[in-house]
Amino acid sequence: MLTVVLTIFCGCQGNKSAVPSEDKEAKALLQGIWVEEESGDVSMRIVGDSIFYTDSTSMPSYFRIVADSLVMGSGTSYAIVKQTENLFWFVNQNGDIVKFQKSNDPVDETEFVHDTPSVMTYTHQVKTDSVVMYNGERFHWYIAINPTKYKVVKRNYNDDGLEVENVYYDNIMHVSLFQGAQRLYSSDFKKQMFVKQVPENFLENAVLANMEYSRVDAEGFHFNATLCIPDEASCYVVETLIDHKGQMRMKTVEY
Fold first, then answer.
1. pLDDT tens profile 149-172
2. Which of 4, 40, 46, 67 is the most buried (most CB within 10 A)?
3. For 103-220, where are the E strands, in sequence order?
4. Rg of the chain, C-alpha, whole Å
């Protein structure tokens, strides 16, 4: 019985020693407002284990100081070149040495007056509709783009080469189709509905940015949904076809 207890104890001790401990003294030195040495621009404010940025669209970032590196919550790390009470130099993702000095100017605190980051809404025209004729019949289609509170987080790098997170609101698209007074189709579209047409890892980081009417033919009414990574050229265009009986199907037409 004693042997078993000793074995478990030694195993636990070994696991603890394998995990690098955080340098709390180095983290304490980082507390305060930091400006870029060359330009004098205010860059960040560190409070506790969070980095706040002057950009109102960037979320505060969790960080640690481990083994002479600045480690972000995502796991991205930056080698620290020099650190004193008033200086902080590190190597960014481009291999450049970024040099900060601590600010003692109370005016710099005004750069951080925003309490919470602004969440960006990524939409085009909110409502569109039109009447089209096909085989002598009158059809009326309607599209409404409805911003939601569903957040999509995108990781970027700021001017100093630090990883930051921007937050965007996703959208829900409503499409209705009428033949005269008869409603053929009416439904909301969320980005999760396109999981068979768009790769999962792309869809997770994308927003449903737009829905547009394309044309009508013997197959039915063609609408194009656009799913994009915010502020990038990467998009998938998925055709949504509503046939003349009100049935819907999808296919990817462009990337």
1. 888 888 888 888 888 888 888 999
2. 46
3. 120-121, 127-134, 137-157, 163-179, 182-189, 207-216
4. 26
